[in-house]
Amino acid sequence: MPPPPFPKILIANRGEIAVRIIRACREMGIQTVAVHSEADAQALHVRMADEAVPIGPPAPVMSYLRGERILQAALDSGAQAIHPGYGFLAENADFAQSVHDAGLTFIGPPPAAIRAMGSKAAARALMQKAGVPIVPGYQGEDDARTLGQVADAIGYPVLIKAAAGGGGKGMRIAATPGELPEALNAARREAAHAFGDTQLILEKYIAEARHVEFQILADTHGNTIHLFERECSIQRRHQKIIEETPSPLLTPQLRAEMGAAAVAAAQAVSYTNAGTVEFIVDPHTREHYFLEVNTRLQVEHPITELVTGLDLVQWQIRIAAGEPIDLQSTAFNMRSPRGHALECRLYAEDPANNFLPATGPVLQFAPPAGPGIRVDNGIATGDEITTHYDPMIAKIIVHAADRPAAIRRMQTALHDTVLLGLTTNLEFLQAVLAHPEFQAGEATTHFIEQNLPDWQAPVRDLPLEALIAAALSENQFTAGSKPLPAKDTPDPYSPWGRADNFRLGKI
Amino acid sequence: MKHTYTYHGQTHTLDLEPTANGYRVKYNGETYEVRQLRATGRQLVLCVQGHMVTLHTAKHDRERWVDFDGHTYTLEKPIRARRRGGGQQETENVLRAPMPGQVRAVQAAEGDEVETGQTLLILEAMKMEIRIQSPCDGVVESIPVAVGEQVEKDQILVEIG
What we know:
The structure holds two protein chains of two kinds. In chain A, about 30% of the residues lie in helices and about 25% in strands. Chain A is an alpha+beta fold. In chain A, β4 (about 80-85), α4 (about 95-100) and β5 form a beta-alpha-beta unit. By secondary structure, chain B is an all-beta fold. Classes of the chains: A alpha+beta, B mainly beta. The interface of A and B includes residues 352, 418, 463, 470 and 473 of A.
């Protein structure tokens, strides 16, 4: 095995991504240091790491977001590099800078690139200069007459947004010039009320949008490539639930065009390491528009790994250590993704309570297994899902020869997934996979809202077998189960003759 | 031995007796032969009427979780109050609200003789109608709630003596 790029790495994260990074490090012979809040003292990522450092109380702001404590933990433990995962400090340019300033390596892009992409307006301006298509929009003089002219130039329907805002407030759609004046007034009133600022911006409204993002990998030797796309249109409340690659929408030509745009976007900010360029695509016109750059590894990176055969976390580590991407190798010269990969995010949530996160003990988690099935989990049996953190239990990922086979493989994998102790979105995921629009590869970002808005799991009749199992489990195998039956043996030391709770091996 | 569980507001009672080869199960007037082939603390492998099935079970407080054939079922053991004093021979059964809701209908009164499975009270919660059924034969001791009343989760609805 070649010497590891870094002898020791600290993982500044928790849950499944921390587990993912630790797995990648172990394969490379890299020592791992986990950090954890008080709530995560016995978490899976802590148990898997070589060393663990407590960093504070459960609340992220007191622990996983404490950059200076985490940096100190890295220095104290002798780690040479820090992997930030996703979320938390992953896109915090100040943290990345502080890591560099302390003489350690931040496994990710340079702070300048993080900063450049941090501001949406700045990112759009940069992309426009680089020739990357952006959603046609306008921000400037916003009197009704000017906006009317702008709207004509952009083309209807237009989306009116509050310049100061977010969260959908101060947003209105005008489908025709006739609708514009009232829509502007309504948006202005709402914006004044929500933000105390009436400035409005206009954008072209893409009614049926598909979310398609491209994986970028760039080394420190000037090589920037893309590793194809991921389609992430199955979202609920702007949170991705199911992702897949390749996108059913993309033709080889569109893939080449968008891939080139993604590479141009990355080069425009001198990007290095792994990142993702997000686009929205109008399925009718196939026009694509830049949305934003995520300067980190994404949750859904496994599907790209499966269709390319690459380990992106290991490549992040190698690139951070200064290694070049080997452009001559077949691994980096694929014309198109191999086969089809799908990911479902398994969440602890209560469908009867508007899909809000469920909390409680994970009494049993038995992941599915079989050819082409991969499970990236952050929790194990015995862990507890709390309100402090994201309620993601695991990512169930499948790879198969084509899309229909991948869907069938995922349906079977979800069927075989056992999660006891918490309500999950498992049945909801099955409902999405079975839906004809999803099966046809036509789902847009409005799919769930349009097709499954008030979905509830159907109440099934209770099978006799389940009732019997519950009754039989009353007297058995709780913690400290019954002693093994004594057997006729002349051996006084035989474990079969013991009356205590001796158990062979781990069950 | 009788085992009673509630599932989505319905009560289910099973009678389980060990036999020479396994168990005899009585449910809803039918009898079934069951053998327990494996019980590892995570997985249960049973032979029910000649069919081998694998299930996963877990419990937490009064919750009983079962995974069978790709679906998860959550059952609940109804609370049984302890026997009072030496003189009392009957076991009290206390039925509690499985979730917060509103009492829609009360279908029994104090002093009524009731049977296992009989609906005593209807609760409306989470847009569902939940029937609170008697887990046993007995006499209604008290119904401390009234129609229209908002109740909390675990609030006592009916006491059976």
